[in-house]
């Protein structure tokens, strides 16, 4: 707690509040928003079927994209306790508001648009659809795989090796004989898998997915791009907080890690 009332209400005080067996933050981040997002996509599909007699490839794209996200959260729930959100983000107004209002109702403007507008406004050529679907699936693969590699690596170092066999376990989601930097603090920093190429492969892939959620409308309206614009601000802010914290926590070991994995986001670029 900082002592500043407004800041403390916004950022929260308790890290992992529970009611009995229910971890409130875990429940709110995983079980609520993505379920609403998925069912809003399905509702958009039903609306199109009712009014047009078919579901456009654009709406089908959003149903697939939101299903993939929801399914990832459900099938890999065991990986979530290892992440920044569970370890460092407190249960304050910011997290509560965003889980209940922000994610479910502001990430899906493309669905609202498609449910109300004529498909001629957001129709693409077949190669463009192929490009969009391929980009989404490739980004999903890198995101799921990289998150799984890091979380499972951490679980293994804690002696947890019994992983759930949920669908889909993407190829390379567990790294055999990973390379890492042993820090003086005791933790290990993974330097293989997707983590050999960039310090935030998960952010890049997640952001590309968010961009696709808007790009599926093309240039008909800028509003569906809200999610990707908002998200890049969140991720850039998180990166600076995270790198600062890691630099203090790991000291010289963090500098060594940055030499081994020099790129923050896109290998060879930045
Ligand atoms: N759609 C949405 O609205 C949102 C989605 N997200 C997504 O959720 C995911 C969050 O991932 P999360 O893991 O929490 O965040 P990060 O990837 O930012 O995790 C950061 C922490 O992981 C540890 N770490 C970093 N690099 C390594 C490494 N090479 N080896 C081992 N440990 C490392 C450090 O913690 P330490 O060493 O202290 O353990 C660090 O503080 C992202 O994919 C993000 O895009 C996040 C917010 C909102
Ligand atoms: C910050 C918020 C919510 C964040 C969640 C949506 C993500 C936080 C941690 C994420 C995940 C961790 C590990 C995973 C393993 C992978 O194999 C699959 C994906 C995932 C389950 C991934 C999914 C997203 C998170 C739960 C709020 C405030 C918006």
Automatic annotation (TrEMBL):
EC number per UniProt: 1.3.1.71
GO CC terms, sorted: endoplasmic reticulum membrane
Mode of membrane association: Multi-pass membrane protein
PROSITE patterns (alphabetical): STEROL_REDUCT_1, STEROL_REDUCT_2
Membrane-spanning segments: 26-45, 52-70, 90-112, 124-143, 207-236
GO biological processes: ergosterol biosynthetic process
An example molecular function term from Gene Ontology annotations: Delta24(24-1) sterol reductase activity
InterPro entries registered for this protein in UniProt: ERG24_DHCR-like, Sterol_reductase_CS
Pathway: Steroid metabolism; ergosterol biosynthesis
Catalysed reactions, semicolon-separated: ergosterol + NADP(+) = ergosta-5,7,22,24(28)-tetraen-3beta-ol + NADPH + H(+)
Family matches, as Pfam families: ERG4_ERG24
Keyword terms of this UniProt record: Endoplasmic reticulum, Lipid biosynthesis, Lipid metabolism, Membrane, NADP, Oxidoreductase, Steroid biosynthesis, Steroid metabolism, Sterol biosynthesis, Sterol metabolism, Transmembrane, Transmembrane helix
Subcellular location: Endoplasmic reticulum membrane
Family: Belongs to the ERG4/ERG24 family.
Protein known as: Delta(24(24(1)))-sterol reductase
Species per Swiss-Prot/TrEMBL record: Favolaschia claudopus
Phylogenetic placement of the source organism: Eukaryota, Fungi, Dikarya, Basidiomycota, Agaricomycotina
């Amino acid at each position: 707690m900082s002592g500043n009332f407004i800041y403390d209400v916004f950022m929260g005080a308790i890290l992992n509040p529970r009611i009995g067996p229910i971890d409130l933050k875990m429940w709110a981040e995983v079980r609520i928003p993505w379920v609403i997002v998925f069912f809003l996509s399905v509702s958009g599909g039903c609306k199109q079927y009712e009014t047009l007699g078919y579901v456009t490839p654009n709406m089908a794209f959003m149903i697939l994209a939101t299903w993939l996200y929801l399914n990832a959260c459900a099938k890999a729930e065991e990986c979530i306790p290892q992440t920044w959100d569970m370890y460092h983000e407190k249960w304050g107004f910011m997290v509560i508001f965003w889980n209940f209002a922000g994610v479910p109702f502001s990430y899906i403007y493309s669905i609202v648009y498609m449910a109300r507008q004529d498909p001629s406004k957001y129709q693409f050529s077949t190669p463009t659809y192929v490009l969009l679907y391929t980009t989404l699936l490739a980004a999903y693969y890198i995101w799921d795989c990289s998150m799984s590699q890091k979380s499972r690596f951490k679980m293994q170092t804690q002696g947890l090796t019994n992983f759930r066999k949920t669908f889909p376990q993407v190829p390379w989601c567990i790294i055999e004989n990973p390379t890492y930097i042993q820090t003086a603090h005791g933790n290990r920093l993974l330097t293989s898998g997707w983590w050999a190429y960039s310090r935030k492969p998960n952010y890049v892939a997640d952001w590309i997915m968010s961009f696709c959620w808007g790009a599926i409308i093309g240039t008909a309206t800028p509003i569906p791009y809200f999610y990707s614009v908002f998200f890049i601000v969140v991720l850039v802010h998180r990166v600076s907080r995270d790198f600062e914290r890691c630099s203090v926590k790991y000291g010289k070991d963090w500098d060594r890690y940055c030499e081994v994995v020099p790129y923050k986001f896109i290998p060879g670029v930045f």
